[in-house]
């Protein structure tokens, strides 16, 4: 809700940006083709796509790091299990000597 309130405040002032000519041509082509109603709609769609893609990339990066962590933990777990098995074997040897 705070984000929406902040967004409404920002929308009161017109926003303008200088775009490269090739991007302006693509914007106008998208409107002229009937795909979008106006250039503002094209820019809005493009920015939504950009932010969604960025969020997805971040999630994928986070997942890659988690997979590495999981692998490292599995390696440590296997090592600990082997160490535990060795200790249990030593206990059995010591108990058999009694």
UniProtKB/TrEMBL annotation:
Biological source species: Methanorbis rubei
Listed GO biological process terms: regulation of DNA-templated transcription
UniProt keyword annotations, A-Z: Coiled coil
InterPro entries: ParD_sf, Ribbon_hlx_hlx
UniProt KW Mitochondrion keyword: no
Coiled-coil regions listed: 56-97
Organism taxonomic ancestry: Archaea, Methanobacteriati, Methanobacteriota, Stenosarchaea group, Methanomicrobia
KW Cytoplasm (keyword) present: no
Designated name of the protein: CopG family transcriptional regulator
